[in-house]
Amino acid sequence: MNVIDKCWRGNPFWQSQRQQLAKCSVGFAGKMINNIGKDVVKYKVTDPSDDPLSPKPGTLRYGTTMIKGKVWITFKNSMTITLQRPLLLSSFTAIDGRGINVHITGVGCLLVYQVTDIIIHGLRIHHCKAQPPSTVMGPNAKVIPLGQMDGDAIRLVTARKVWIDHNTLYECQDGLLDVTRGSTNITISNNWFRNQDKVMLLGHDDGHLRDRNMKVTVIFNHFGPNCNQRMPRVRHGYAHVANNFYQGWEQYAIGGSMSPSIKSEANFFVASNDVGNKEVTWRKGEKGLWKFYSVGDVFKNGASFSKQTGVGGAKPNYNREQDFKVVGAGSVKELTSESGVLRCSRSLTC
């Protein structure tokens, strides 16, 4: 097991001690201790229906928007939630799908907008569709207007301190995960991304200079099969991409523009069997002070990582609560073998 999973998965009482999970995160999100404590409201989803403007008690949207303060959301049983509009999350919200099967699909899907201290764990999010401008219930029970939504599984907009762990994401209209518009202190770990063209975007657009402060950790994830590009694509900011397993790509695996800093460390890259692109990297524009290099990565089936720049720079400089040991790439297959939603029994260890 990797360092995150070792922290909680061996506990046979995880079902009654769910908040232990918040102390297990590493990377730029740090520990999620602001999500736990005696003042946490424990909320259970019992109703899979969705009303975007008048959420009913028992629904997921009610839990993410109508409850003040810290909320830890679990689910009574397995369910599929078809969102009628994007689902917004309030600050200090944890969504915990362990122990059952929760599918989220429909319009949106998850929008983490101008909030902080968010945990998203154990969800299957897929077949998310675009949405024209609309209104929807937002944080603190306030109806807010939304612009065009492209159809991403999870979209972060001006969000801070977010941990996205052990989810399975696939087949959405646009991308699977976007981190944009000044979002920072994000950890993306133990997820399974598959069957998607554009997988992960870090940085809104080339002109959005606030994303220069973006810091994202991408660790222990499984990319593939059938992923094309953006694993991730980085603009302006900093990404530490470590101990991930790449099961092929068509255009590229890791890319960027606007002089980001990217440290690719101890990942396991397996290029596709076909005569597609074996090169891991893609760069838009060579100008600027790029730091984009590989340390300890393993390349199989002809995979290559060319034009390294800024070698030795782009260190994450984690603080004590963020820091973790990157293991050798030879162990990555094992460390990522249970990426995505875990099969947890309510009475046994995960």
Automatic annotation (TrEMBL):
| Gene3D superfamilies, sorted | Single-stranded right-handed beta-helix, Pectin lyase-like
Q: What is this protein called?
A: Pectate lyase
| Cofactor requirements of the protein | Ca(2+)
- Highest taxon of the lineage: Eukaryota
Record family assignment: Belongs to the polysaccharide lyase 1 family.
* Domain Pectate lyase, residue spans: 78-275
Q: In which pathway does it act?
A: Glycan metabolism; pectin degradation; 2-dehydro-3-deoxy-D-gluconate from pectin: step 2/5
Specify one Pfam family.
Answer: Pectate_lyase_4
Q: Which UniProt keywords apply?
A: Calcium, Lyase, Metal-binding, Signal
Q: What class of enzyme is it?
A: lyase
Q: Which reaction does it catalyse?
A: Eliminative cleavage of (1->4)-alpha-D-galacturonan to give oligosaccharides with 4-deoxy-alpha-D-galact-4-enuronosyl groups at their non-reducing ends
An example of a Gene Ontology BP annotation on this entry? Answer: pectin catabolic process
The answer, when asked if Transferase is one of the entry's keywords, is no
Listed GO MF terms = metal ion binding; pectate lyase activity
Reported EC number(s) for this entry are 4.2.2.2
List, alphabetically, the InterPro entries matched: AmbAllergen (IPR018082), Pec_lyase (IPR002022), Pectin_lyas_fold (IPR012334), Pectin_lyase_fold/virulence (IPR011050), PEL (IPR045032)
Question: How is its cofactor bound, per UniProt?
Answer: Binds 1 Ca(2+) ion. Required for its activity.
